[in-house]
What we know:
Layout: H1 11-20, H2 24-28, H3 32-49, H4 51-59, H5 63-69, H6 72-75, H7 78-92, H8 103-118, E1 123-124, E2 127-128, H9 130-155
Amino acid sequence: MNENSVSRNSPLEALFWCIAFPGFGQLLNRHYIKGIVLIAMEIVINMGSHLNSLIVHSFLGDIQTAVEHTNYQWLMFYPCVYMFGIWDAFKHAGGGQSPNAAFPFIFCAFFATIGVALSSRLKIAGLLLGPVWLPMLFALAGVFVGFLIKRFLNSLPSHSV
């Protein structure tokens, strides 16, 4: 299948498979090399950052332990790899064909990365949210900002050159 061709899979199905695990949407879309590379990157970044144990500590409410065990140099890569995988699978399954459709994904990755960077110090309402919850909160804000910018840009009249 041509890299630029559209798959017969549902864009939402591809998106949800990549949310579950980066690279699975690419495998669904028959982009095997890209899928394997994304899976390998997810595993390496996950292990390097200790992400699974950070998630467990965060869900148990032990945020300080999560912060102490985080390898931020590895975790900083995760939001961009994760969101690229989601966007790519969605796009190649036929979603995101409208102009500026990538903006919510781009801003989600950008804001989540900022959330990772600030997660050891920034407190919201006096609570330290740590390396899992703060990036997720920032990611939601990024999606919102991305949709606003997309909507604004798509409302502008197009000019021919």
